């Protein structure tokens, strides 16, 4: 989701926040995305994977496609693939369809869902809340799962009959196998006016990129050309530093943007590294907010104020107050139910520069707070080498995926449970997870 944030922490000049800086360069990429959209509008569906390292501009280029689609009468659905949510069946589809459905009149939604209304409502809670109770015929698990896939694709295809559809999935490297498989299905429907654009981090997304290589067009992003950096820098009012910024950032867009934010907030020179730029801004929010933000960085890219408050043992209002300070410094931005880090890299810098003992305290507390989200809980437990809890979390998450007949995801999660149980020396637990893994392999 592309949302704006404001930066005004002790500014010397009017701040230019990431989303307010003009879009520069990327002409050939935008041309190719425009062509893919044009083809989709004419009934040739497509899947484009925008690949590159963190901060290179994948989400921003994808946002240009969103703009193009919006300007040409398309319907845009978008969602971000969340970390540690592989056990939630088709998480990004559920989110994208849910957001869209929440704004539709019940009659229209019922028409779009068609025969599959009950299945779609079971898959997407927001559809259920618009439609009200829908009766589902009893079926086997395997059939229910196939129907869930069909309900998601059917809904998108029905939407595309009205207007061409752009589905944007950000951070596909986080997605579970069930999601990736469904993307393959989606691109098969010849005649469907649908374009799927997904962003993938190259370092983490090898498997995803490979498994979709035969059905997707891949767009690899490199650094911005020098002229594009000069334009960004000049438009922000720092023309005299253009050469320095070009040399130092080597065209890495996030580094350029962070440099401009630092300068706007009173920085006296071009920061030596992306990390230095982020840390300089962090220091400006004051020590208390910094500590809260460092705790948030342990939780993940999405910041739920209520969980954060409990993590740092502060009243909700106070922790939300710190989030507001971070928001005005452009370190966080508003998100659906709270905040998220302005960029994954901002979170990663905070995480990496937090002293290990403090990280351990936050992870350990997060384990306590997230027992209702076993997969996320397991990741926190693993981070502090609490292998017994990690094993239990992954086992529960694997069971959840197995309940949805998301076989590959269940296998991956159960394999993690087995490994963690062995590390914990919990023989019975390892045997249990191994047995479940075998059962699933036999079923599959
Ligand atoms: N072509 C561009 N023109 C202007 N700003 C850009 C461009 N590409 C990226 N940015 C900015 O750089 C930052 C990082 O880009 P982003 O798209 O979030 O990277 P990624 O998704 O690859 O991690 C964002 O603030 C974004 O607005
Ligand atoms: Mg991104």
Which secondary structure elements does this structure contain, and how are they paired or packed?
Blueprint lengths: L26 H15 L4 E7 L5 H14 L3 E6 L10 H11 L4 H8 L3 H7 L1 H7 L9 H22 L2 E6 L6 H10 L7 E8 L4 H6 L5 E4 L5 H10 L6 H8 L3 H12 L9 H11 L2 H13 L2 E2 L1 H8 L3 H13 L3 E4 L2 E4 L2 H9 L3 H14 L4 H10 L3 H17 L3 H18 L2 H17 L1
Parallel strand pairs: 1-4, 1-5, 2-3, 3-4
Antiparallel strand pairs: 6-8, 7-8
Helix pairs in contact: 1-2, 3-6, 5-6, 5-7, 10-11, 12-13, 14-16, 14-17, 14-18, 15-16, 15-18, 18-19, 19-20, 20-21, 20-22, 21-22
The chain binds adenosine-5'-diphosphate and magnesium ion.
Structure description:
This protein is an alpha/beta fold. The chain has 3 domains: 27-220, Rossmann fold, CATH 3.40.50; 224-354; 372-444. Helix content is 59%, strand content 9%. It contains 22 helices and 8 strands. The strands form 2 sheets. The chain has a 5-stranded parallel beta sheet, with helices on both faces. β7 (332-335) and β8 (338-341) form a beta hairpin. α5 crosses α6, α19 (374-383) runs antiparallel to α20 and α20 (387-403) packs antiparallel against α21 (407-424). It is globular, with a radius of gyration of 23 Å. The two termini are 35 Å apart. Mean pLDDT is 91; it is low at 1-18.
């Amino acid at each position: 989701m592309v949302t704006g944030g404001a930066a005004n922490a002790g500014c010397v000049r009017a701040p230019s926040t990431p989303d307010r800086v003009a879009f520069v360069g990327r002409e050939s990429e935008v041309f190719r995305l425009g062509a893919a959209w044009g083809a989709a509008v004419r009934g040739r569906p497509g899947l484009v994977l925008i690949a590159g390292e963190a901060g290179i501009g994948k989400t921003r280029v994808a946002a240009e496609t969103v703009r193009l689609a919006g300007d040409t009468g398309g319907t845009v659905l978008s969602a971000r693939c969340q970390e540690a949510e592989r056990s939630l069946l088709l998480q990004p589809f559920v989110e994208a369809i849910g957001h869209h459905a929440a704004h539709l009149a019940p009659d229209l939604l019922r028409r779009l869902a068609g025969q599959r209304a009950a299945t779609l409502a079971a898959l997407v809670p927001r559809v259920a809340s618009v439609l009200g109770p829908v009766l589902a015929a009893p079926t086997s698990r395997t059939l229910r799962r196939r129907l869930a896939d069909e309900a998601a694709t059917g809904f998108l295809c029905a939407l595309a009959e009205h207007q061409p559809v752009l589905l944007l999935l950000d951070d596909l490297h986080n997605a579970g196998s069930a999601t990736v498989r469904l993307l393959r299905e989606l691109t098969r429907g010849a005649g469907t006016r649908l374009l799927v654009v997904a962003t993938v981090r190259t370092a983490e997304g090898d498997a995803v990129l490979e498994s979709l290589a035969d059905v997707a067009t891949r767009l690899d992003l490199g650094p911005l050309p020098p002229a594009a950096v000069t334009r960004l820098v000049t438009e922000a009012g720092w023309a005299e530093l253009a050469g320095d910024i070009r040399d130092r950032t080597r065209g890495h867009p996030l580094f350029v943007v962070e440099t401009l934010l630092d300068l706007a907030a009173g920085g006296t020179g071009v920061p030596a590294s992306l990390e230095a730029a982020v840390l300089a801004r962090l220091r400006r929010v004051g020590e208390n907010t910094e500590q809260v933000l460092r705790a948030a960085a342990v939780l993940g890219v999405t910041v739920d104020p209520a969980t954060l408050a409990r993590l740092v043992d502060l009243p909700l209002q106070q922790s939300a107050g710190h989030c507001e300070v971070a928001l005005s410094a452009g370190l966080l931005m508003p998100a659906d139910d709270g905040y998220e880090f302005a960029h994954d890299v901002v979170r990663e810098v905070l995480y990496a520069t937090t002293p290990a003992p403090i990280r351990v305290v936050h992870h350990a507390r997060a384990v306590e707070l997230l027992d209702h989200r076993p997969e996320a809980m397991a990741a926190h437990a693993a981070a502090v080498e609490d292998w017994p809890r990690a094993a239990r979390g992954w086992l529960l998450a694997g069971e959840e995926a197995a309940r949805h007949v998301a076989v590959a995801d269940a296998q991956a999660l159960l394999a993690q449970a087995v490994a963690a149980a062995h590390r914990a020396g919990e023989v019975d637990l390892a045997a249990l997870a191994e047995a479940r893994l075998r059962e699933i392999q036999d079923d599959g």
